[in-house]
Every structure is written in C-alpha cells, then in structure tokens.
Amino acid sequence: MTEFFHDLSVNPFLINGLVAGVLAGLACGIIGPYVITKRIVFLAGAIAHIAVGGVGIALFLKYSGGSYFSGLEPVHGATAIALLAAIIIGVINEKRAEHADTLIGALWAVSMALGILLIKYTPGYQGELMSYLFGNLAYVTRSQLAWMAILDLVILATVLLFHKQFMAVCLDQQLATLQRVPVLAINLLLLCLVALTVICLTQVVGLILVIALLSLPAATVARFVIGMPALLAGATLLGILITTVPRIAVYGTAVSPESAIVLAAGGVYLVSLLMTRRVPE
Amino acid sequence: MLSPKTGEPMAAVAPLTKTSPDPSFATPNVVGRLEHVTFSYRSPTGGLLEPVLQDISLEIYQDDFLGIIGPNGGGKTTLLKIILGLLEPQQGTVTVFGKPPREVRHLIGYVPQHAKVDTSVSACVLDIVLAGRICHSRWGFLYGRTDREKALAALRLTGTADLAHRRLATLSGGQRQRVLIARALAAEPKLLLLDEPTAGVDPYVEQNLTDLLHALNEQLPIVIVSHDIGFVSTHLKRVACLNRRLTVHSAAEVTRSTMAAFYGEHVHLVHHTPCCPLNDPGCDHGCVPVPSATGRKMEEP
C-alpha cells in the first residue's frame, strides 16, 4: 500500500484512477438509493448492456467515418445510446406492455450484438470493447475524467432540483399521479440519470460489474440509517470509499483493481447483512 | 360551499355538462356526483368486458360519512378509482367539486388498502407522509418548514407522531393504516376516500380507527369502501350497497334482507360490539368479550 503512495508522484494515471473512483462513487451514492427504492436495478443492467451498441457505433464512426468523427470517443456513443435506451425502456415500462420484459431483453441482446459487430468491422486496436466490458482503472484518461465530472454535475444538479418528485414516484406512483406529479416525465428523467450513472461507473469497473456498485453501497447503508437524506449521504460516502480504498490496497499485487472494488462492495454488504439481522426500526 | 381555488361559491363555477343539464347541480352541499356511470375493463385484445359498474348514480355531500359495501369483485375499488379520475367511465358523468376528477384530484385524499402498499422501502414514516405534500411543494431537495409542520400535524392527528422515524416494515397493520391516513391528510384534502381501512386489523384497533374517522368527519366528507358490514352499519351515516349496481340506504336500514339480496342468503349480520382482541373477560380496554370465536364479521358460506 505504501508502494501506491510512492508511485503516485511518478505515475499520473494512478491519480486519474483515484479521481475516477471518487467521481464514480459520487454518482452511485446519489442514484443508488433511488434505484433500490424503486427496484429498477435490472433496468439499470439493461441500460448498461444496451450502451455497448453506442460504443460500437462511436468506434466505427471514429475510424471509418472520416475526419468529421475523429474526436468521437466510445464514451460519447455509450452515453447517447444509454440515454436513448433509458427513454425507450421507461416508455415500455410505463405502458405496462404485456411483454415488457421480453421487449427489454430483446433490446439488450440486439444492441450488444450490434456493438460487437461494429467493433469487429472497425480497423485497428480492439481493446476498447474489453475495457468497456471489464473496466480499465489503470489507464483512465483526462478526457474520460472530464466527461465523468460533467456527468456527476448533471446528476447532482438534477437530484437537488427534483429529489421530492423522484421520491414521490419511488414511494407510491399512484399517489404521485393523484398529486399531479408528471409521473412519466419524472420516471424518464430518473432513468436518464441512471443511464448517466451507469456510464460513469463503467469507466471504473466496466459494465459487467456496474450493477454491484449501483445497488450494493446504497443497500448496505440502508440497513443502518433511516430516512432518505441520511441514505443519500451515507451511500455517497461508502460509494467513494469502495471505489478508492480497494484499488489502493491491491496495488502492486496480481489482483485486478476492478474485481477488488466489486468484491469489496459485495463483502461490505454481506457483513452488513450479518450485523443487522433485521432492518432498523 | 366555496371553491377551494377561487373562493367563489361552487355553484357559480360548476359547469353544466351537455348531457346532464340538471339544475340541482347548484345544490350547495354536494361535493361529488356520479350520474348513470357505466364502466367496463378492457380485455387484453381491446374489447370491453362485462360491466363492473352499471348505471351508477351517487351524490356525496359535504358532511357525508358514506360507506360503500359489497362482495369482492363488486366494483368497490373501481368506483373509488372513477371518483379519483384514475379510470374513465364509458358512459355517464363524474364531477367532484363541480369539475372533472382529473382537475381536482389533488384535493381528494386517497387511502389505499395498506396491504397493497410496498413496505420494504428504506424511507421512514416521515418521508412517506411528506411525499403526500408533493402537490404543495414541487422543487428542491428538502421540504420546507410549513410542509414538515403539516406532515407532523397529520401524524399527531392520527396518533402516529412517535413513529415518524420508523420504517413502514416495522409497523403493525393498524399503525400502517394510520400512517397512510396521515399521508392523505398531509395534503389537506377536501374529501377523504378510504379503501378497506379495517381489513386485517383487530377489533380494538378498528375501534381506534373509527374514533379517528369520526373526528375527521367533523371537517371532511368521508367515503369508505368496506366489506365489513358490522363496521359500516354501526358507524356510518349512509350506506351504499354495490354489486355492479348501487343502492343507497341510510345506515339504519341495512338489515338482514338487504344483505341477503346482495350477498345471497347465507350472510350472518352480527351485532357490533367493541370487543377485546384477546377475548379476555378481564381486559382493561373497556371492551366486551367476543360472544363467539367467529365474531362479528360477515361470514360467507
């Protein structure tokens, strides 16, 4: 662990990785409580996988679409497709379509297949898909950090403005309808924030593990605190700790930092389950 | 009565719909009116099913304490949803405070069946009751002082102030029911609708709930949906029997024969006495032991 702090001064990517962890922890701490209250962890998973299509489109355009697209990064395509997926999934869910789960599953698979196909037809290095799937904390670039910071700001500002309405639709959608909350619009906005959070988290742990960070810190804190403001604050703090401390702890060992982060999130949640047999009164 | 928004007399702003040019719309103490309402749910293929409600006409008055009783599937909850504007009838008109329900439904306090409310959320009781204030406080992160005071006042009124920082999951059925009533009251409604408020609570708690509703009825018209005939016939001013069609009685009229007509012959109408949940003759709740184990509720054959 001392090795990490020693190398910190010579390797700027280590700092980038830590900053990425903090930014990702912030996003999952703010959005996680809504996701577990509204029980949309699996919708978040669907959004993450559908975004692979966006990675494919962005890479394909960047390398085959001429100079106009040369500044396009995979994360931009992923963000655009994740937002689109959030809106489509939100509408499907709202209409209570009879086969909503089938439709969402189909989108999930088709968009992933499209992304993989496009990446295969993209000339050059194929590592982008792997780092989107599994994360690449060792080489987070400054432009990625800037993008994550923008996403965090958008998430924070929206939550500060719309928290009450998010809570109303999370707690009781029928009550929200009766109290004239624009339920569909608020649901879509919340899903869009989930999409932005997913993009933030995939930069750190990759999409395969994103569900862990979106649900586990919030679910852990929910076993100890009562009331939504405390849950948001606690989940943010725990989220930041979980995305940074394990990375430092396993530095210099063969353990990949992405796995360490998720295993730590799972471990902390397991301990919280054992410590509190019942939810607090 | 006065319109809640403009302060003008309601009768002046109540629109006369084309299909019902009924001069008695001006009746000052009518808060809600259903005229010849027929409603059917749609089948998955889009066709209309058998009507759940047929030719329902009903008035709700300013000082009303109305019970709607009927068998399961008789259309009780559907009727409440129509009054709330959550469902639109195929025929007939519905007005609440002289307007279509969709425009005024934030003025209607709705207490759903507590058994149907998700109790596993990490929010505390105060969060849940504050959410009832959403139509008064749209933006921002925290509710303001007025909202918190109104929410706490609603909790005190329903006797649940000491539960404010508990979770719904850790409360008993009767406590949950009171919290849901507090949530509805926090919005400062002008009409209160309750769906099966006594379902799954013991007779002692039921008596407490009844006292609470009687106190609320001093200020608010209340409509209760229930299949608990004993509750309805002893406590309410008027009773409407609903089984696709609706018949309104004063509460005293509800007798064995009216019940038999609605439920079939095998209904037991048992006299309501406040009774001890533990059936303990020496209990100090001030209540009378239950005469028999099968109690006072309607029994279906």
UniProtKB/TrEMBL annotation, chain A:
Give the top-rank taxon of the lineage listed in the UniProt record for this protein.
Bacteria
| Keywords annotated in UniProt | Membrane, Transmembrane, Transmembrane helix, Transport
Record membrane topology: Multi-pass membrane protein
Where does this protein reside within or beyond the cell?
Cell membrane; Membrane
Q: Name one GO cellular component term.
A: ATP-binding cassette (ABC) transporter complex
Which Gene3D superfamilies does UniProt cross-reference here?
A: ABC transporter involved in vitamin B12 uptake, BtuC (1.10.3470.10)
Q: Enumerate the InterPro entries for this protein.
A: ABC_BtuC-like, ABC_TroCD
List membrane-spanning regions.
13-35, 42-63, 75-92, 104-124, 144-162, 183-214, 220-241, 248-271
Q: What is the similarity comment for this entry?
A: Belongs to the ABC-3 integral membrane protein family.
Q: What is this protein called?
A: Zinc ABC transporter, inner membrane permease protein ZnuB
